[in-house]
Amino acid sequence: MFSLTENQKKLILAFFIAVLLWGYASNQTANFLNYVEEQAASFLVDVETKNLPQKYEIKSKSVERAVVRIDYISYFTKINKSEIKAYIDLQQVEPGDNMKIIEVDLPASAKLLGVDPGYMIVNIAKKIEEKDK
């Protein structure tokens, strides 16, 4: 009957582990059963405003929504539109037209490919208080 020595068993086990490691390293973005695949998606999202000082108000904005293009790796799930937040930071604004870059918050598994448009123009005015009328 055929019998393996202890060294032959270790050698076969080491070869099997080496093949598994090679397969994992060469297919980091997709495993053998193709469960994981890269996805590219575009979402039309509303652009929110943050940090507007209380003494100012927004008169007009050049755009209300932006197209956000992302790339992500899918692990049995899809990214929903509700997980993507586009906003402009109005912390340092002056009365008149202000050009602000549209920033995007994404889930950790996603990578931003682009935003169209990449910026927006916001017209800011001082608030008129009741005692000034």
UniProtKB/TrEMBL annotation:
This is YbbR family protein. It comes from Halanaerobium praevalens (strain ATCC 33744 / DSM 2228 / GSL).
